[in-house]
Amino acid sequence: MKVAILGMGSVGKGVLRMLGEKDLGIDVTAVADSKSALIDKNGISIADILRVKQKSGFCGDRSLGALDVVKKADYDVLVEVTPTNAITGEPALTHILEAIDRGHDIVTSNKGPISREFSLLMSKAREKGVQIRYEATVGGAIPIMHTLDQGLAGNRILAIFGVLNGTCNFILTRMADEGLTYEQALLEAREMGYAEADPTYDVKGIDPAIKLVILANKFWKETVRLEDVDITGINKLTNNALRLAEEQHCTIRLIAEAIPGRGILRVAPRLLPITHPLVVEGTLNAITIETDMAGEITLIGKGAGSVETASAILGDLLCIRDIHEGSHPETA
Amino acid sequence: MKLEIKDAPGQLVAALKPISEVGGNIIAVIHQRDDKQRGKMLSVQIVLELPDHRMKDLTRLLREQGVNIQRIGHERLLYQKAVMMIGHLIHTDLGDTVDRIDRTGFAEVTELNISMPAITEVSSARLLIKSVNKEDMEQAMDILRRVAKEKDFLLVEPLEEVE
């Protein structure tokens, strides 16, 4: 199977490294970063490309770009791992639509197009008979999409609750454990590299809300948008509030919840007993799925990271390969 | 509730039986023999838990048993919820915030723990709200959500299971 990879940030590099280390029968025939691209239908040496990128900051020819890869390269699956633009979904949306149009399958970690244009993308994919997989958009390494698609197939999903933002969870954990103020914990998160220079998307709950939109589109209805989510962040929380919660054997976590039966789509800090399965430590993510048959299932895992996200991407790639080989149930 | 029963064998059991018939749970029975009491009547105080809206059935059944109900104490509020409030709670009249719940008549704030680090900083409070049933609690929470919006403080609600 041949793949073209768009984006050579943390996720793209992780995917390349893992494809290089593991003999999965997947060849990389094109890569692009934000300034250059490299296309070779006979396959690219992963070690070389990582070395060149490390040295020069470019992965290839500066006269080529991501769209050249999408349109001209020889590949089966487009791996779209460029940075998320939550407002327009671009340029990833154009990359993905173009690739679908050419009849290629898509694997992406990009929350922008999946959260903004879910129903458009799904209908185009159905029309062209291609797969779009986006395991890496929600919960990092946690196989939530595979769980919903295969493991819980046939179940009715009554609700999903999740700790979907590792940065917020880290801040809340540090505030509770060490009595740090919100500002101190945020500063620490930045120093550890968990928070962006502009942490607004995380701490105001927008990032987990975008992930909730993706989940809701998957299991509820394909028309859910970010504007439908009632969002409250963690930026107004105090360590005193966490201490008062602890006196009652509770703590506070930022919980994203989707409950179709009650029309609820909400991200907000919530009080939970310390023993609750969603009370995970540090940057971990956790997702509880409530179903009619299986009851309650909670998945806990690493919500971010280069190799962790690569795990989700590789899982999707191998799933698509299995579908084409006829050894995997069609899931689109 | 305080009951008056005949001081005769089997009467106490007869008075307690209706409680289990309506699905109630007896927490305590306080049984005092007062020699100064007129006649052969006995006063019994019973603390009990009842399912929602069964009080009327219980009083009817008790009267049928010939039990005289002297006094029905406060209905205990069995449904409770702890919430946190963070913001300028004092400057936005905390008394009024609590009163908005209390004056509903169906829910009340029974505990308030507050931390006020400094005049310029926000306060954090933990409230325990009690109500007779879940519907009343949901209404009380709606009121509190509106007050939070109006007074611009953060309300942190407990995460609850889906039924």
Summarize the topology:
The complex is a heterodimer of chains A (332) and B (163).
Chain A: E1 2-6, H1 10-21, E2 27-32, E3 37-39, H2 46-56, H3 66-72, E4 77-80, H4 92-101, E5 105-108, H5 111-116, H6 118-128, E6 132-133, H7 144-151, E7 157-163, H8 166-178, H9 182-191, H10 200-203, H11 206-219, E8 230-231, H12 239-246, E9 250-259, E10 264-273, E11 284-291, E12 296-302, H13 306-325
Parallel strand pairs in A: 1-2, 1-4, 4-5, 5-6, 8-10
Antiparallel strand pairs in A: 2-3, 7-9, 7-11, 9-10, 11-12
Chain B: E1 2-6, H1 11-21, E2 25-32, E3 41-49, H2 55-64, E4 68-71, E5 79-87, H3 94-102, E6 107-115, E7 123-131, H4 134-151, E8 154-158
Antiparallel strand pairs in B: 1-3, 1-4, 2-3, 5-7, 5-8, 6-7
**Can you count the beta strands of chain B?**
8
What is the CATH top level name of the largest domain in chain A? Alpha Beta
Order of helices and strands of chain B: EHEEHEEHEEHE
How much strand of chain B? Answer: 35-45%
Give the low-confidence spans of chain A.
none
Looking at the overall shape, the CATH architecture of the largest domain in chain A is 3-Layer(aba) Sandwich
Shape of chain A: globular
Q: What is the strand content of chain A?
A: 15-25%
DSSP helical segment count of chain B: 4
Radius of gyration of chain A: 20 Å
Biggest pleated sheet of chain B: 4 strands, antiparallel
CATH topology of the largest domain in chain B: Alpha-Beta Plaits
The gyration radius over C-alpha positions of chain B equals: 21 Å
User: pLDDT average of chain B, as an integer?
Assistant: 84
Order of helices and strands of chain A: EHEEHHEHEHHEHEHHHHEHEEEEH
